[in-house]
Amino acid sequence: MTMQFAAMPDDNGYFGEYGGQLIPPELKAIMDDINTAYEEVSQTEAFQSELQQLFADYVGRPSPIFHASRLSSKIGGAQIHLKREDLNHTGAHKINHCLGEALLAKHMGKTKVLAETGAGQHGVALATACALVGIDCEIHMGAIDVAKEHPNVTKMKILGCKLITVDSGTRTLKDAVDSAFQAYLEDPFNTIYAIGSVVGPHPFPKMVRDFQSVVGREARAQFLEKHNKLPEIVMACVGGGSNAIGLFTEFLPDEAVRMIGVEPAGKGLDTPDHAATLTKGSKGAIHGFECYNLQDENGEPLPVYSIASGLDYPGVGPQHCYLKDIGRVEYVAIDDKECLDAFMELSRVEGIIPALESAHAVAHAMKIAKDMPVDANILINLSGRGDKDADFVADKLGL
Q1: Active-site residue 383, yes or no?
Q2: What is the CATH number of domain 62-91+213-397?
Q3: Residue ranges of the domains in the chain?
Q4: 111-134 pLDDT, tens digit each
Q5: Can you give the pTM of this predicted structure?
Q6: What number does CATH give the domain 15-55+93-209?
Q7: Which is the catalytic residue, given 116, 263, 290, 357?
Q8: Following DSSP, what letter does each residue of 333-346 receive, concatenated?
Q9: Which of the residues 72, 242, 309, 383 is marked catalytic?
């Protein structure tokens, strides 16, 4: 890997001018302890051996790459391939970093893991990991998302986690993060905050990226073995950005590989009802770090919206901001209608029901594939399955 990418973040947690630790001194000391523990523990043979065994025997890694040949044929043009993170235990990529965070908490002697969740996939994955390692788990979730993502709420309760419904603010992901951080500040010594994406103060953007990079390592090796070349394009949806950075990291040095992150345009970029942070945002601070975010004239985070609960966050991972600025990754936006169309098309043409989050990436692939050569390849990180969204979509479309 080129040093341009391998050396990031710097010792202060910055990717270029994004990231850092914009937090009180007492919390900075705790975050630095987490970073030190992570750097020491994660590199030990015992930690890596346990994590790799769980990836194989518990998660079901490596996840396969599926050629969506019927969808590709119907659209015409480039061939569409899916990295099947939806087949992981718990149904999404989130289990990759949740196992890492839960194991780290255990090695640090913590007694509880705290987190937020939007669509519930991070909450389910973390509750699962905590049940596995035998540590208490508390999840904060916006009231709107609790109602919308009922299947995941039920799973979290079955798995034994304490679920906190957040009724403040917009009652969605941003407010769940606020609530969980407040709870964390009440007892940061016995608790570890397991952030659900590549956001928040250092070292979380680095830690979550590192745990998720297994996706890209597998995908690059699998694609080379099967096709004897790399895909022309790799693509993933972007909310906070964990599944995208997990796929992108291993491909960063491959200059011929085009990378595209797909944000939620919601009801339209010309309306306030979207969460296209990199497309429409500006640099600012949120939740202890600097990034592009959607903010008002006073620098306060704006209310955001997406049909996909896991994408409606007003900020984004600092490494994505850096990659946008240097032009290594393109960021585009897909609206609700395009997302729903892709959700139904993949379901009915390939028999794969995607998460609404992942359907944003599928939609953009469908949009651009038809204008590419038939021997070109697009690899999508299908980051989650749509079980959690099925009832919502059925009601939305009158099915």
Answers
A1: yes
A2: 3.40.50.1100
A3: 15-55+93-209, 62-91+213-397
A4: 999 999 988 889 999 999 999 999
A5: 0.94
A6: 3.40.50.1100
A7: 116
A8: EEEHHHHHHHHHHH
A9: 383
